[in-house]
C-alpha cells in the first residue's frame, strides 16, 4: 500500500487528526494519533497487519507479543494471519511482565508489535521480557511511530505510519502564537 492510501484511511477513520491539540502531558502538538480508531475496525486492522507481515515474509516467526492494551489486538491479528500464538505483557506494580501463565519458549523467534510509539519505552520493556525468557526478537511491527523513524531498537522495525510529531510547552507553542484554538481530544489513550 502506498503511504498516501494509508494516510487517507487514517484520516478518514480520524486516527490521525491535524490541527492544534493539548496532549495528556499538557504539551501542545499539531498532530494527534488515536490508534483505537483503527483497532475498532477489524477489516482495516487486518489490512494493516497484513501490510506489516508482507515486509517480514522471509522471517520465521513462532510467536507474537505486544504490550497491553494497544498491542493485544495487533498481536492477536498478526498471530491469526501467521498461524501462531499471541501473548501480551502487562504492568504489575509498574513493571512490564508476563502474567496469566504466558511463557515464551527458549529460542522462539518472536515478533513484537505495538500500536503507537512515542519514546519506545513500552516496546523496550517487552524486548527485555522476551530476552529474559530466552526468546529471540526477530522483528518489531508498529502501527504508528511518532518519532518519524528516529527510534532505533537495533532490531528490524516495520511501520504503517511514521511521522515525527513535535510537541511544545504551551508557552513556546507556535500554534498558540497564531491564535489557533487548541483542542483537548477526549481520551487518555494518547501516548
Ligand atoms: Zn498551542
From TrEMBL:
* GO process terms (BP): 'de novo' UMP biosynthetic process; pyrimidine nucleobase biosynthetic process
Q: Which family does it belong to?
A: Belongs to the purine/pyrimidine phosphoribosyltransferase family. PyrE subfamily.
The record's section on PANTHER family has:
OROTATE PHOSPHORIBOSYLTRANSFERASE, URIDINE 5'-MONOPHOSPHATE SYNTHASE
User: Which reactions appear under catalytic activity for this entry?
Assistant: orotidine 5'-phosphate + diphosphate = orotate + 5-phospho-alpha-D-ribose 1-diphosphate
The keyword Nucleus is assigned to this record: no
What EC identifiers does the entry list?
Answer: 2.4.2.10
Q: Where does 5-phospho-alpha-D-ribose 1-diphosphate bind?
A: 114-122
Q: Which UniProt keywords apply?
A: Glycosyltransferase, Magnesium, Pyrimidine biosynthesis, Transferase
Give the organism, scientific name.
Garciella nitratireducens DSM 15102
Q: Name the gene that codes for it.
A: pyrE
Q: Which domain of life is it from?
A: Bacteria
Q: Record keywords: Magnesium included?
A: yes
The pathway noted for it is: Pyrimidine metabolism; UMP biosynthesis via de novo pathway; UMP from orotate: step 1/2
Residues binding orotate, per UniProt? 118, 146
Q: How does it assemble?
A: Homodimer.
Required co-factor(s) are: Mg(2+)
Instruction: Output this protein's name.
Output: Orotate phosphoribosyltransferase
Q: Where is the Phosphoribosyltransferase domain?
A: 53-164
